[in-house]
Design goal:
This protein is mainly α. The protein has one domain. Helix content is about 85%, strand content about 0%. It has 2 helices and no strands. The chain is rod-shaped and about 55 Å long. The protein starts with a helix and ends with a helix.
């Protein structure tokens, strides 16, 4: 495997790991919003916004990982 393919494979793995970590953090925060009295009602929209941003970043990183995996498939 040449250096370019190893670079793409490393990036795909990294982006997939970022995606999974961001998804786990967003799920943890979302579950926290479901617990009564865990978060003030005034702060709940801020936390929901944070969950949305984390989920969006997770989707973007997952898409980037798939892009690099497709590049690897096309080169083989």
């Amino acid at each position: 495997m040449d250096e370019q393919k190893q670079n793409w494979l490393g990036k795909a793995r990294d982006y997939k790991a970022y995606s999974l970590v961001l998804f786990a953090v967003s799920a943890f925060l979302y579950i926290g919003t479901l617990i009564p009295e865990a978060i003030d009602a005034t702060k709940r929209p801020l936390v929901i916004g944070g969950v949305f941003v984390l989920m969006l970043a997770s989707i973007i990183f997952s898409h980037r990982a798939n892009t690099y995996l497709r590049k690897l498939d096309n080169e083989q």
